[in-house]
Amino acid sequence: MQGFTRPEQRAILFLLSTFGLGTVIWWHRQCQPLPAANPAAIAALDEFAKALHGDSAHASAPANEPAQAASALPQPVDLNAATYSELVRLPGIGPVMAKRIIEYRDANGAFKRLPDLRKVKGIGAKTYQKLAPLLMIEPDQKYRPATK
Fold first, then answer.
1. d(Cα 50, Cα 23) in Å, to the nearest integer?
2. Nearest to 31 by CA among 40, 23, 42
3. Is 137:113 a contact under the CB 8 Å cutoff?
4. Block means of pLDDT (10 residues each) for the chain, length 148 residues?
5. Is the full-model pTM beyond 0.70?
6. Considering only CA atoms, which of 37, 43, 82 is closest in space to residue 59?
7. 47, exposed or middle or buried, with CB in 10 Å at 0-12, 13-18, 19+?
8. How far apart are the C-alpha atoms of 29 and 64, rounded to whole Å?
9. CATH of 77-136 among 1.10.150.320, 1.20.58.340, 4.10.91.10, 3.40.50.1970
């Protein structure tokens, strides 16, 4: 390795040894058998994927139990009546966002339309698109702000 300074030689040696170690680790992992699959976990994931995509053609529920299959799909949550714990369970809504939604509801009153949710800080177009099918607004319900 003539022509390289001492620090350059050390850097090249470090990179080559890192590459060699990575290659050995990769080879070792390739030689290891895959872990055994848990059939119960696979079945649960399949059911979740079918419910998520609404895949009725491959549903494993028998034809004589349509009510049970329909109950697996999530029911829409009323945005004006949702509690903190209900909001946190929605995709893309964490504790901070749930608190912001409740604070916005308390400060401005009931949501009149679902797109009004976009006025809450932190809810953009993508989050709204994920949430819109899971939310609803009951027109007859009177909103009561949370008591402190």
1. 39
2. 23
3. yes
4. 90 96 92 80 83 60 46 72 88 89 91 90 89 84 55
5. no
6. 43
7. middle
8. 47
9. 1.10.150.320
